[in-house]
Design a protein that fits this description.
Layout: E1 6-7, E2 15-19, E3 24-26, E4 29-33, E5 37-43, E6 46-51, E7 54-58, H1 64-70, E8 79-81, E9 83-88, E10 92-98, E11 103-106, E12 113-126, H2 129-137, E13 142-144, H3 145-171, H4 182-198, E14 202-213, H5 219-237, H6 241-254, H7 259-274, H8 278-291, E15 296-298, E16 305-307, H9 326-334, E17 338-340, E18 347-349, E19 388-389, E20 396-397, E21 414-415, E22 422-423
Parallel strand pairs: 1-4
Antiparallel strand pairs: 2-9, 2-13, 3-8, 4-7, 5-6, 5-9, 10-12, 11-12, 12-14, 15-16, 17-18, 19-20, 21-22
Length: about 425
């Protein structure tokens, strides 16, 4: 039977627990424990003596609990079977986390639903080695940083989602303003996650949210940002939306030919000189009463009485000359476009699947609906680059600059710049930490 002479571990700092591969020990075996390490002996699945940093000789004097179990003889050398576990107690401060999928939240300020992503990092230290090994590590030969992230992903993701949602609702702040409160959110999350980790003998050193972002290409985000930019422009110039609509109506009326157009043009010029807003409305009203225009007509949209030569309705802003009823609009939209066959040049409705002249299959361009020839890679009408077919799984790859298949990830592997995770496929965000790729 082999008897181990020296037991020691100089391993990767990302490893939190490591089991010495041999279980054949003997009295007088040298157990070396480095600084920021602790070693625990297991016998029959039971945690026995714990050793701190230094050199320890496995003999009866040093392992009293073990001696009671296996009755080591005094003096001489006696082999025995036991497990030695090393626990790394160093502070690990670079554990990355992130939301793999967006959090759908309603902006409490603007009442629109916006997807959020968040990522950051936290630091831990193994505080109770015995509890950590018994309640979390179990019988696996090694427990590292990746295992820790996998075990506690559900915990921190749930806490992050709840905290961000509650903070937005209670503070009544916009999603676009949340990054101003990252420090407060980090402190709150640290207090909520701390008790859950302590149960497994782990001390939470810190917890940070590095960023909370919204996808720039999301329709709701784009619409909200456009509206905010428009409002900021109005605030700078010094008018509101109602006044802007009035300007558009008056400007359109001023461009009309005839008596009323000249009157409105003169009124607009006068209003610009006297001041915009309520004063302009008063001046125009008084001018219309004084001139006593008799020829009238009705707006086809709101049925308001307007001057005969007036193009835009002063109440709803409707363009009277180009007005179309709902039935006319529906008829226009329902009328199918004609497609030119790429085989024979005949025209057929866009709703058809085959050319009505030669029977050629209609292959529409995804962008302009033009009929494409078989094997075409670029649309001859609009220049759209057609999706390529993946040689591995046959999926269509729409991105012309893609170097890998978004379905099977063939022939490409890259690393996330935030957490170093290897990623295959074509995600926009890291599935491990949520950082934008």
């Amino acid at each position: 039977m082999a008897i181990v002479e020296v037991v020691k571990y100089n391993g990767n700092p990302d490893v939190f627990a490591w089991k010495f591969p041999s279980e054949e020990l003997g009295t007088w075996t040298q157990l070396i424990v480095n600084e920021a390490q602790e070693a625990i002996l297991f016998k029959g699945g039971q945690a026995l003596d714990l050793f701190t940093s230094g050199r320890h000789t496995l003999e009866t004097a040093n392992i009293p609990i073990l001696s009671k179990i296996i009755n080591l003889p005094f003096g001489g050398r006696s082999p025995f079977t036991a497990e030695v576990w090393y626990v790394n107690k160093i502070n690990s401060l670079d554990i990355k986390w992130g939301t793999a999928t967006p959090i759908q939240l309603q902006d409490p300020k603007y009442k629109v639903f916006i997807p959020l992503r968040s990522f950051g990092q936290f630091g831990i230290q193994i505080e109770d080695s015995r509890r950590f090994l018994i309640k979390l590590v179990g019988t696996v030969p090694e427990f590292n940083k990746a295992d820790l992230i996998k075990y506690f992903r559900g915990l921190y993701l749930t806490k992050v989602k709840d905290s961000i949602s509650s903070y937005l609702i209670h503070k009544q702040i916009s999603v676009l303003e949340i990054n101003a409160y990252l420090s407060e959110l980090s402190d709150e999350l640290s207090r909520e996650i701390l008790p859950a980790l302590e149960e497994y003998g782990i001390k939470l050193v810190n917890f940070y949210i590095n960023d909370i972002s919204v996808p720039e290409d999301d329709p709701a985000v784009m619409k909200l940002k456009d509206a905010l930019a428009k409002r900021a422009e109005m605030d700078i110039v010094g008018y509101n939306y109602t006044q802007e609509r009035s300007f558009d109506t008056l400007e359109g009326a001023a461009t009309n030919q005839g008596t009323s157009g000249g009157i409105m043009g003169a009124g607009l010029g006068l209003g610009m000189g006297l001041g915009v807003g309520g004063g302009l409305g008063t001046q125009m009203s008084n001018m219309s009463r004084t001139l006593n225009i008799t020829e009238k007509k009705f707006c086809p949209n709101c049925n308001t009485e307007i001057d005969k030569d007036q193009r835009f309705c002063g109440k709803c802003g409707c363009d009277v000359l180009n007005y179309k009823s709902d039935a006319e609009k529906q008829h226009t939209q329902s009328t199918p476009d004609l497609i030119v066959c790429s085989n024979c040049g005949a025209k057929f409705p866009a709703t058809a699947k085959f050319c009505i002249e030669c029977g050629n299959v209609y292959t529409p361009c995804p962008k302009c609906k033009a009929d494409l020839k078989e094997g075409a890679t670029v649309c001859p009408e609009c220049g759209y680059v057609l999706p390529r077919k993946c040689p591995g799984c046959g999926a269509l790859i729409e991105n012309e600059k893609a170097k890998f298949c978004p379905e099977c990830g063939i022939s490409i592997i890259k690393k996330c710049l935030n957490c170093g995770q290897e990623i295959s496929g074509a995600p926009k965000f890291c599935p491990e930490c949520g950082a934008k790729l």
